[in-house]
Amino acid sequence: xxxxxxxxxxxxxxxxxxxxxxxxxxxxxxxxxxxxxxxxxxxxxxxxxxxxxxxxxxxxxxxxxxxxxxxxxxxxxxxxxxxxxxxxxxxxxxxxxxxxxxxxxxxxxxxxxxxxxxxxxxxxxxxxxxxxxxxxxxxxxxxxxxxxxxxxxxxxxxxxxxxxxxxxxxxxxxxxxxxxxxxxxxxxxxxxxxxxxxxxxxxxxxxxxxxxxxxxxxxxxxxxxxxxxxxxxxxxxxxxxxxxxxxxxxxxxxxxxxxxxxxxxxxxxxxxxxxxxxxxxxxxxxxxxxxxxxxxxxxxxxxxxxxxxxxxxxxxxxxxxxxxxxxxxxxxxxxxxxxxxxxxxxxxxxxxxxxx
Length: 356
Prior knowledge:
356 residues; alpha/beta; globular
């Protein structure tokens, strides 16, 4: 089996502009930098060898190549997935991550996870692939894993960056598949008090009440709309189901997850950010929270303006939204496990007073 590890320009061969260096993986040598590799090959390459280093991870910081079951010889940046609940600070988080020089983060929601899920659904129903599983199951499955990992690696390109951020709420539903394709990945899960998520969505709806939700919730009353948002197949409900399922994951998988409470980030941004950078394995970086990178914003029309991705150039405390007491009690009653696990410091609402 051969693996492509670099592209070499042979300046002494005019008839061939580019050649691809192929090394047998059985005798593959590992180098800490492209310079070391070039020096080692100086005697074996005609004339002078100039490497065109499109090798992410070697430019920003030299790192040892790891044994990857799909492409052991190809260095790549580490993948960081941003996911979690809606209205829980993922836009702000991406602005902070983008301020670190070792992290590539454009802050836009990415189709990568959706595409990988579509590939899995499509190939699982493909008659030709199913027949290959019957004839040679292990090679066929290995080929599928190489293909899907190759797509992921091809999509994730951070240039000189050591880490690349990919934002999509669907990552929370596909933790184990993501780890099977990129074992080094880390996932940041954004959390927030559920009552403030519901109140934020309702407040935004009242500002855009002439436009319906993408899933047709505008005709509901406030209680019915909140109840629907927490239901199966809805934006909050599905995320909560996956959050609860995290407790069933193996310890090794849970160690790849960082749970970030929005309230903690707003109350003590410097300390939370420092802890996050340390967990990601990047160098400490002082973030100027009064001068955050804004960049072009995301399109909000897809979600009918109900979930805006507003970017502020400075850290801005959000307004606290009021939620009717009946809805607040319902959320705490149904999702008590969430508060017990993630928000034990939040006081439970009192029961309504009975008739006198």
